[in-house]
Amino acid sequence: MGFGSSSNQLGIDDFHGEPGPQLPDDFDTVTATPLEYFLLIFPVQLIQALVAHTNAYSVWKIAQNGPDDRWDDVTFAEMRAFLGINILMGISQLPHTEMYWSTNPFFGNAGVQRVMTCNRFQKISQYFHASDRSAEVGRGLPGYDKLYKVRSVMDVLLGTFRRYYTLSRVVAVDEAMVKYTGRLSFRQYMPAKPIKRGIKVWMLCDSANGYLAKLEMFLVFVGFVDT
């Protein structure tokens, strides 16, 4: 991108990119399963890190609170299943988590029930961790990061989002709201939005199809006071 020499008008260089998926050379699009596509974006190494962080956090938490006879270290297979169930819960939503294990055929999900028990799902949820708790910088200290607990996951995903897809010439930057009603220092209240309470994020997307390439969370509160 450059500037015109005679008038301060913004000049835009010709677009020479090849937009669309940029898959590895050894990736077979004919035989690839949805799971293999997912693992391009959410790599095995990230799942392994979640296993390690969750088990490490459980050790620390049990040392604080005493033995937990219902807990066994989570395995890679369990973590993969746990993530899959959470994705499914976002697609097929029920009012309460326990309802996915209901014996009522109108609510219970047979697939979820075959993969994991309700008690095990709740235990993994209790200790689930996505960061190294021992390396976390305390609030008010130099290097403190409000997003530390999810920063490593965000960094990996934003890297794979860009690695395996080239944006088209026309992109859009806009704000979005992620619904969240819990306690959070940077939660926003925006009464004019369809989602009024949550986390505000800036998103860079491909205008042709909405593909998300980059996002930044808005961490400084500006606007209405949530009362």
From TrEMBL:
Alphabetized Pfam families for the sequence: DDE_Tnp_1_7
Domain PiggyBac transposable element-derived protein, residue spans: 33-217
Identification of the protein by name: PGBD4-like protein
Organism whose genome encodes this protein: Mya arenaria
